[in-house]
Design brief:
single chain; 15 helices; 4-stranded parallel sheet; Glycosyltransferase; alpha/beta; globular; Glyco_trans_1; 12 strands; Glyco_trans_4-like_N; 2 domains; Rossmann fold; glycosyltransferase activity
Protein backbone atom coordinates (compact mmCIF):
# COMPACT_ATOMS: atom_id res chain seq x y z
CA UNK A 1 0.00 0.00 0.00
CA UNK A 2 2.95 2.31 0.56
CA UNK A 3 3.71 1.86 -3.13
CA UNK A 4 0.25 3.11 -4.08
CA UNK A 5 0.68 6.07 -1.75
CA UNK A 6 4.12 6.98 -3.10
CA UNK A 7 2.89 6.79 -6.69
CA UNK A 8 -0.19 8.91 -5.95
CA UNK A 9 2.03 11.58 -4.38
CA UNK A 10 4.53 11.46 -7.23
CA UNK A 11 1.72 12.03 -9.71
CA UNK A 12 1.15 15.38 -7.97
CA UNK A 13 4.69 16.46 -8.85
CA UNK A 14 6.19 16.17 -5.36
CA UNK A 15 9.88 15.33 -5.01
CA UNK A 16 10.00 12.03 -3.16
CA UNK A 17 13.01 10.15 -1.83
CA UNK A 18 12.14 6.50 -1.22
CA UNK A 19 14.57 5.14 1.38
CA UNK A 20 15.11 1.43 0.81
CA UNK A 21 16.33 -1.14 3.30
CA UNK A 22 15.70 -4.10 1.01
CA UNK A 23 16.20 -3.54 -2.70
CA UNK A 24 14.90 -6.88 -3.96
CA UNK A 25 11.15 -6.32 -3.56
CA UNK A 26 8.95 -7.84 -6.24
CA UNK A 27 7.12 -4.53 -6.58
CA UNK A 28 9.97 -2.03 -7.04
CA UNK A 29 9.45 -2.00 -10.80
CA UNK A 30 5.99 -0.50 -10.20
CA UNK A 31 7.35 2.67 -8.59
CA UNK A 32 6.66 5.94 -10.42
CA UNK A 33 9.74 6.91 -12.50
CA UNK A 34 9.92 10.34 -10.83
CA UNK A 35 10.55 8.79 -7.41
CA UNK A 36 14.19 8.97 -6.29
CA UNK A 37 15.25 5.63 -4.82
CA UNK A 38 17.95 5.69 -2.14
CA UNK A 39 19.51 2.45 -0.91
CA UNK A 40 20.42 2.84 2.76
CA UNK A 41 22.84 -0.06 2.39
CA UNK A 42 21.50 -2.10 5.29
CA UNK A 43 19.72 -5.44 5.40
CA UNK A 44 17.63 -4.81 8.50
CA UNK A 45 15.70 -1.87 9.90
CA UNK A 46 17.84 -1.81 13.05
CA UNK A 47 21.08 -1.41 11.08
CA UNK A 48 19.61 1.45 9.05
CA UNK A 49 19.85 3.87 12.00
CA UNK A 50 23.14 5.56 11.10
CA UNK A 51 22.49 5.69 7.32
CA UNK A 52 19.08 7.23 8.03
CA UNK A 53 20.59 9.77 10.43
CA UNK A 54 23.17 10.73 7.79
CA UNK A 55 20.42 11.16 5.21
CA UNK A 56 18.40 13.41 7.53
CA UNK A 57 21.45 15.50 8.43
CA UNK A 58 22.47 15.99 4.80
CA UNK A 59 18.99 16.46 3.33
CA UNK A 60 16.89 17.85 6.21
CA UNK A 61 13.60 17.06 4.40
CA UNK A 62 10.36 18.75 5.47
CA UNK A 63 8.78 15.41 6.31
CA UNK A 64 9.75 11.78 6.90
CA UNK A 65 7.06 9.10 6.63
CA UNK A 66 7.92 5.81 8.35
CA UNK A 67 5.79 2.91 7.17
CA UNK A 68 5.97 0.47 10.10
CA UNK A 69 6.40 0.30 13.87
CA UNK A 70 10.09 -0.64 13.87
CA UNK A 71 10.87 1.90 11.14
CA UNK A 72 9.09 4.56 13.16
CA UNK A 73 11.12 3.87 16.29
CA UNK A 74 14.39 3.94 14.36
CA UNK A 75 13.30 7.19 12.69
CA UNK A 76 12.78 8.87 16.07
CA UNK A 77 16.34 8.06 17.14
CA UNK A 78 17.78 8.99 13.74
CA UNK A 79 16.10 12.40 13.85
CA UNK A 80 17.59 13.04 17.29
CA UNK A 81 21.07 12.03 16.12
CA UNK A 82 20.80 14.21 13.02
CA UNK A 83 19.38 17.18 14.94
CA UNK A 84 16.87 17.44 12.09
CA UNK A 85 14.40 19.63 13.92
CA UNK A 86 12.91 20.86 10.63
CA UNK A 87 11.82 17.35 9.63
CA UNK A 88 8.27 16.45 10.60
CA UNK A 89 8.04 12.75 11.52
CA UNK A 90 4.92 10.79 10.60
CA UNK A 91 4.38 7.10 11.37
CA UNK A 92 1.96 4.91 9.45
CA UNK A 93 0.80 1.92 11.48
CA UNK A 94 -0.71 -0.91 9.46
CA UNK A 95 -1.29 -3.58 12.09
CA UNK A 96 -2.82 -4.17 15.50
CA UNK A 97 0.23 -4.18 17.77
CA UNK A 98 -1.40 -6.00 20.68
CA UNK A 99 -2.52 -8.87 18.45
CA UNK A 100 0.83 -8.99 16.65
CA UNK A 101 2.72 -9.22 19.97
CA UNK A 102 0.29 -11.65 21.63
CA UNK A 103 2.31 -14.79 20.85
CA UNK A 104 5.54 -13.41 22.33
CA UNK A 105 6.74 -14.52 25.80
CA UNK A 106 6.59 -12.03 28.66
CA UNK A 107 10.14 -10.66 28.51
CA UNK A 108 10.06 -10.26 24.73
CA UNK A 109 6.68 -8.55 24.97
CA UNK A 110 8.14 -6.12 27.51
CA UNK A 111 11.11 -5.40 25.23
CA UNK A 112 8.76 -4.66 22.32
CA UNK A 113 6.36 -2.43 24.24
CA UNK A 114 8.85 -0.37 26.27
CA UNK A 115 10.45 1.39 23.24
CA UNK A 116 6.97 2.21 21.97
CA UNK A 117 6.09 3.94 25.24
CA UNK A 118 9.38 5.84 25.19
CA UNK A 119 9.61 6.79 21.51
CA UNK A 120 6.08 7.21 20.14
CA UNK A 121 5.49 10.47 22.09
CA UNK A 122 8.34 12.00 20.02
CA UNK A 123 6.52 11.29 16.74
CA UNK A 124 4.59 14.27 15.37
CA UNK A 125 1.57 12.34 14.08
CA UNK A 126 0.61 8.67 13.83
CA UNK A 127 -1.60 7.50 10.98
CA UNK A 128 -3.61 4.38 11.80
CA UNK A 129 -5.17 2.39 8.97
CA UNK A 130 -8.35 1.60 10.90
CA UNK A 131 -10.27 2.68 13.99
CA UNK A 132 -9.27 -0.59 15.63
CA UNK A 133 -5.58 0.12 15.05
CA UNK A 134 -6.03 3.65 16.39
CA UNK A 135 -7.66 2.44 19.62
CA UNK A 136 -4.97 -0.21 20.09
CA UNK A 137 -2.17 2.29 19.41
CA UNK A 138 -3.50 4.65 22.06
CA UNK A 139 -3.57 1.81 24.58
CA UNK A 140 -0.11 0.45 23.76
CA UNK A 141 1.75 3.74 23.32
CA UNK A 142 0.10 6.07 25.80
CA UNK A 143 0.22 9.00 23.36
CA UNK A 144 -2.47 11.67 23.43
CA UNK A 145 -5.60 10.93 21.34
CA UNK A 146 -5.15 13.96 19.06
CA UNK A 147 -1.81 12.58 17.88
CA UNK A 148 -3.35 9.48 16.24
CA UNK A 149 -5.60 9.87 13.20
CA UNK A 150 -7.26 7.30 10.93
CA UNK A 151 -6.62 7.38 7.18
CA UNK A 152 -7.90 4.54 5.03
CA UNK A 153 -5.37 2.56 3.03
CA UNK A 154 -4.77 3.68 -0.59
CA UNK A 155 -6.06 0.39 -2.01
CA UNK A 156 -8.27 1.16 -4.99
CA UNK A 157 -6.37 2.39 -8.05
CA UNK A 158 -7.02 2.44 -11.80
CA UNK A 159 -4.17 -0.06 -12.10
CA UNK A 160 -5.98 -2.54 -9.84
CA UNK A 161 -9.16 -2.33 -11.89
CA UNK A 162 -7.21 -2.67 -15.12
CA UNK A 163 -5.19 -5.65 -13.88
CA UNK A 164 -8.39 -7.43 -12.89
CA UNK A 165 -9.43 -7.52 -16.56
CA UNK A 166 -6.41 -9.63 -17.57
CA UNK A 167 -7.17 -13.04 -19.11
CA UNK A 168 -8.22 -15.77 -16.70
CA UNK A 169 -5.06 -16.98 -14.92
CA UNK A 170 -6.31 -20.43 -13.87
CA UNK A 171 -8.39 -23.15 -15.59
CA UNK A 172 -10.61 -23.58 -12.53
CA UNK A 173 -11.97 -20.05 -12.74
CA UNK A 174 -15.26 -19.62 -14.58
CA UNK A 175 -16.62 -23.15 -14.03
CA UNK A 176 -20.21 -22.72 -12.79
CA UNK A 177 -20.37 -26.34 -11.60
CA UNK A 178 -17.36 -25.92 -9.31
CA UNK A 179 -17.31 -22.46 -7.69
CA UNK A 180 -13.86 -21.24 -6.67
CA UNK A 181 -13.05 -19.93 -3.20
CA UNK A 182 -9.96 -17.71 -3.00
CA UNK A 183 -7.54 -16.93 -0.20
CA UNK A 184 -4.63 -14.50 -0.59
CA UNK A 185 -1.69 -13.84 1.72
CA UNK A 186 1.59 -15.06 3.11
CA UNK A 187 1.42 -18.67 4.28
CA UNK A 188 2.01 -17.75 7.93
CA UNK A 189 0.40 -18.16 11.33
CA UNK A 190 -1.22 -14.73 11.02
CA UNK A 191 -3.34 -15.71 8.01
CA UNK A 192 -4.56 -18.96 9.65
CA UNK A 193 -5.09 -20.88 6.42
CA UNK A 194 -5.46 -24.17 8.39
CA UNK A 195 -8.85 -22.90 9.57
CA UNK A 196 -9.77 -22.13 5.95
CA UNK A 197 -8.75 -25.65 4.88
CA UNK A 198 -10.92 -27.24 7.58
CA UNK A 199 -13.86 -25.03 6.63
CA UNK A 200 -13.37 -25.84 2.96
CA UNK A 201 -13.21 -29.59 3.63
CA UNK A 202 -16.48 -29.35 5.57
CA UNK A 203 -18.11 -27.32 2.80
CA UNK A 204 -16.86 -29.62 0.05
CA UNK A 205 -18.53 -32.56 1.80
CA UNK A 206 -21.85 -30.81 1.12
CA UNK A 207 -21.33 -29.26 -2.31
CA UNK A 208 -18.81 -29.11 -5.19
CA UNK A 209 -16.22 -26.33 -4.83
CA UNK A 210 -12.52 -25.64 -5.21
CA UNK A 211 -10.00 -23.60 -3.25
CA UNK A 212 -7.09 -21.50 -4.52
CA UNK A 213 -4.66 -19.89 -2.06
CA UNK A 214 -2.20 -17.35 -3.47
CA UNK A 215 1.02 -16.65 -1.60
CA UNK A 216 4.30 -18.07 -0.35
CA UNK A 217 5.48 -18.79 3.17
CA UNK A 218 6.76 -21.21 5.77
CA UNK A 219 3.48 -23.08 6.12
CA UNK A 220 3.31 -24.37 2.53
CA UNK A 221 4.37 -27.93 3.39
CA UNK A 222 2.10 -27.96 6.44
CA UNK A 223 -0.89 -26.89 4.33
CA UNK A 224 -0.13 -29.46 1.65
CA UNK A 225 0.12 -32.24 4.24
CA UNK A 226 -3.07 -31.05 5.89
CA UNK A 227 -4.93 -31.07 2.57
CA UNK A 228 -3.90 -34.71 2.09
CA UNK A 229 -5.19 -35.59 5.56
CA UNK A 230 -8.49 -33.82 4.89
CA UNK A 231 -8.88 -35.46 1.48
CA UNK A 232 -9.08 -32.18 -0.43
CA UNK A 233 -5.73 -32.10 -2.21
CA UNK A 234 -7.30 -32.57 -5.64
CA UNK A 235 -9.52 -29.53 -5.02
CA UNK A 236 -6.77 -27.26 -3.63
CA UNK A 237 -4.32 -25.18 -5.67
CA UNK A 238 -1.32 -23.34 -4.16
CA UNK A 239 0.16 -21.42 -7.11
CA UNK A 240 2.45 -19.36 -4.88
CA UNK A 241 3.05 -15.64 -5.28
CA UNK A 242 1.49 -13.90 -8.26
CA UNK A 243 2.06 -10.32 -9.33
CA UNK A 244 -1.58 -10.04 -10.38
CA UNK A 245 -3.95 -11.56 -7.81
CA UNK A 246 -6.71 -9.27 -9.07
CA UNK A 247 -7.47 -11.39 -12.13
CA UNK A 248 -8.13 -14.23 -9.67
CA UNK A 249 -10.22 -12.03 -7.37
CA UNK A 250 -12.36 -10.75 -10.21
CA UNK A 251 -13.28 -14.28 -11.32
CA UNK A 252 -13.46 -16.09 -7.98
CA UNK A 253 -16.91 -16.87 -6.64
CA UNK A 254 -15.91 -16.06 -3.06
CA UNK A 255 -12.96 -14.46 -1.27
CA UNK A 256 -12.22 -15.56 2.30
CA UNK A 257 -10.06 -13.83 4.91
CA UNK A 258 -9.28 -16.27 7.74
CA UNK A 259 -6.72 -14.14 9.61
CA UNK A 260 -6.00 -14.05 13.33
CA UNK A 261 -5.04 -10.39 13.15
CA UNK A 262 -4.74 -7.59 10.60
CA UNK A 263 -4.58 -3.81 10.56
CA UNK A 264 -6.81 -3.06 7.62
CA UNK A 265 -6.85 -6.12 5.32
CA UNK A 266 -5.94 -4.97 1.83
CA UNK A 267 -6.82 -8.21 0.06
CA UNK A 268 -10.32 -8.10 1.54
CA UNK A 269 -10.67 -4.48 0.42
CA UNK A 270 -9.44 -5.32 -3.09
CA UNK A 271 -11.88 -8.20 -3.47
CA UNK A 272 -14.76 -5.96 -2.40
CA UNK A 273 -13.64 -3.25 -4.82
CA UNK A 274 -13.92 -5.84 -7.60
CA UNK A 275 -17.44 -6.84 -6.52
CA UNK A 276 -16.49 -10.33 -5.33
CA UNK A 277 -18.48 -11.92 -2.49
CA UNK A 278 -16.47 -12.09 0.74
CA UNK A 279 -16.41 -13.73 4.16
CA UNK A 280 -14.02 -12.75 6.96
CA UNK A 281 -13.04 -13.58 10.48
CA UNK A 282 -13.82 -10.83 12.97
CA UNK A 283 -10.14 -10.37 13.78
CA UNK A 284 -8.46 -7.26 15.14
CA UNK A 285 -8.50 -4.95 13.30
CA UNK A 286 -10.26 -3.84 10.13
CA UNK A 287 -12.74 -6.47 8.88
CA UNK A 288 -15.48 -5.33 11.25
CA UNK A 289 -15.17 -1.79 9.90
CA UNK A 290 -15.00 -2.89 6.27
CA UNK A 291 -18.05 -5.14 6.59
CA UNK A 292 -20.00 -2.76 8.83
CA UNK A 293 -20.26 -5.21 11.69
CA UNK A 294 -21.42 -8.01 9.39
CA UNK A 295 -24.12 -6.02 7.58
CA UNK A 296 -22.32 -6.13 4.23
CA UNK A 297 -20.93 -9.68 4.48
CA UNK A 298 -20.53 -12.34 7.19
CA UNK A 299 -18.05 -12.02 10.05
CA UNK A 300 -17.17 -15.20 11.95
CA UNK A 301 -15.12 -15.86 15.10
CA UNK A 302 -11.40 -16.44 14.59
CA UNK A 303 -10.44 -20.10 14.33
CA UNK A 304 -14.07 -21.30 14.10
CA UNK A 305 -13.96 -23.46 10.96
CA UNK A 306 -17.57 -24.61 11.38
CA UNK A 307 -18.92 -21.05 11.43
CA UNK A 308 -16.65 -20.18 8.52
CA UNK A 309 -17.93 -23.13 6.49
CA UNK A 310 -21.55 -22.12 7.05
CA UNK A 311 -20.83 -18.51 6.10
CA UNK A 312 -19.02 -19.62 2.94
CA UNK A 313 -21.99 -21.74 1.90
CA UNK A 314 -24.37 -18.85 2.54
CA UNK A 315 -22.36 -16.50 0.35
CA UNK A 316 -22.07 -19.05 -2.47
CA UNK A 317 -25.81 -19.71 -2.34
CA UNK A 318 -26.81 -16.05 -2.00
CA UNK A 319 -24.01 -13.73 -3.15
CA UNK A 320 -24.44 -10.03 -2.27
CA UNK A 321 -24.96 -7.23 -4.75
CA UNK A 322 -21.52 -6.43 -6.26
CA UNK A 323 -22.44 -2.75 -6.40
CA UNK A 324 -22.93 -2.68 -2.62
CA UNK A 325 -19.49 -4.19 -2.11
CA UNK A 326 -17.83 -1.68 -4.44
CA UNK A 327 -19.61 1.28 -2.86
CA UNK A 328 -18.63 0.22 0.65
CA UNK A 329 -14.89 0.70 -0.07
CA UNK A 330 -15.06 4.07 -1.85
CA UNK A 331 -13.04 5.81 0.87
CA UNK A 332 -10.13 3.44 0.18
CA UNK A 333 -9.39 5.28 -3.07
CA UNK A 334 -5.66 5.93 -3.47
CA UNK A 335 -6.00 9.57 -4.53
CA UNK A 336 -8.32 10.38 -1.65
CA UNK A 337 -5.97 8.65 0.78
CA UNK A 338 -2.98 10.58 -0.61
CA UNK A 339 -4.83 13.86 -0.06
CA UNK A 340 -5.30 13.01 3.62
CA UNK A 341 -1.67 11.97 4.03
CA UNK A 342 -0.37 15.19 2.46
CA UNK A 343 -2.60 17.28 4.71
CA UNK A 344 -1.30 15.51 7.83
CA UNK A 345 2.29 15.77 6.59
CA UNK A 346 1.88 19.52 6.11
CA UNK A 347 2.41 19.24 2.35
CA UNK A 348 -1.12 19.80 1.06
CA UNK A 349 -0.18 23.13 -0.54
CA UNK A 350 3.07 21.90 -2.10
Amino acid sequence: MVLNLVNAMAERGLHIDLLLIKTHSRHLHEIHPAVNRIDLGSRHTATSLLPLARYLKQTNPPCLLAAKDRAGRIAVIARILAAASRTRLILRLGTNLTAAFAHKPGWRLFLRRLPIRLLYPRIDRIIAVSEGVRADTLTVSGVTPEKVVVVRNPVVTPQLLEAAEAPSPHPWLGDPKNPVILGVGRLTVQKDFPTLLRAFADLRARRPCRLIILGDGRQREKLQAMSDELGISEALALPGFTANPYAYMKRADLFVLSSRWEGSPNALTEAMALGTAVVSTDCPSGPNELLDGGRIAPLVPMGDWQALSKAMQRMLDQPPDPTLLCESVREYNAQQSADHYLEIMGLASV
